[in-house]
Write a structure and sequence with these properties.
single chain; about 150 residues; mainly alpha; about 0% strand
Length: about 150
């Protein structure tokens, strides 16, 4: 009985390790799969929100724009990988993409920290106007995508 338990434990450990190693080698998306807007809003809807809710929407839109706009010449939708575009997934390209993802995440960390500390001082109407501007920019990106298909 002990032999079966040991065998099963070793088998599960090796299976888990194989699955995790495959995930590390999987092609990474050019545009983060988290770069999505759940819902667009209108001015009336935004005016009914508290400033804290508006700040979260503002930050969410900044994140999506930063994770999307620099890459629109390659892709406009999350989930597209270098392999999908025919870009070789060699060590050099992987390192470049990993460095870009790391830099983007660092930039966003600093930016979000700044936004959380400074934006509460902003005028609510300016915050609403900025959210609407960001949302219109993202809607324009959808038009850009339609024009390229």
């Amino acid at each position: 009985m002990k032999g079966k338990i040991i065998f099963l434990s070793i088998f599960l450990m090796l299976s888990t390790e194989m699955v995790l190693s495959q995930a590390k080698n999987a092609p990474q998306s050019i545009i983060s799969t988290t770069a999505l807007i759940r819902k667009y809003h209108d001015q009336k809807e935004l005016k009914g929100m508290q400033k804290g809710e508006l700040l979260e929407l503002y930050i969410e839109r900044i994140k999506v724009l930063v994770k999307t706009l620099p890459y629109i010449a390659l892709a406009t939708k999350p989930g597209v990988t270098m392999v999908d575009l025919g870009i070789p997934m060699d060590n050099e390209n992987k390192k470049i993409q990993d460095a870009q993802v790391s830099s983007t995440n660092s930039f966003l960390d600093v930016t979000v920290e700044f936004q959380r500390k400074m934006m509460p001082y902003s005028d609510k109407d300016n915050l609403i106007a900025a959210i609407l501007f960001y949302e219109n920019t993202l809607k324009t990106l959808h038009l850009f995508n339609e024009n390229n298909e």
